[in-house]
Every structure is written in C-alpha cells, then in structure tokens.
Amino acid sequence: MTDGARPASGDDRPLREAVEASLARYFDHLDGSSVTDLYAMVMAEVEAPLLTSVLDHTQGNQTRAAEMLGLNRGTLRKKLKHHGLI
C-alpha cells in the first residue's frame, strides 16, 4: 500500500469504500426485513479473511502477524483456532 490506506493498484477501492458498498448492497437486499447483531455478523465475515491475508503476507509467521494486527500472539492463536485456521 502506498499511503497506508490505499492499495497500490489504481483500480482497487480503499477498504472503507468496499465495506460501505457491501453494506449498502446488504441493506438493499433486506427488502424491509429487520436485522439484529449486525456488528457480530460483519466481524465474523471480516475477521477470518483478515487473519488469512495477514498470515499469507507474513508467510505463516504468527509472531509477525500478531504484531501487524496489534494483537498478542496468544490472542491471535485463539482467533485462528476459532476460525479453524490452525
């Protein structure tokens, strides 16, 4: 990433815009239905691919991955186990 917020490729959108667009589509498809626990649902959808991507970036080095994520290594391992990633 060039400025810490945007991917280097010019045709990729910043993460924030991608999330906003995804949530807008989600709300459009609700068609009047109510929703609860949206925060937990979004976190469950985002956390596993985040962990996978960071581990790929660090070539499986959990210590470096934990540092990148701002987590302690034990917390990272707990999250990896929760998502069936180890």
Automatic annotation (TrEMBL):
Keywords: DNA-binding. The keyword Nucleus does not apply. GO terms for molecular function: sequence-specific DNA binding. It holds the Pfam family HTH_8. One of its GO terms (biological process) is regulation of DNA-templated transcription. Residues 43-81 form the DNA binding HTH domain. Transmembrane segments: none annotated. Belongs to the transcriptional regulatory Fis family. This is Putative Fis-like DNA-binding protein.
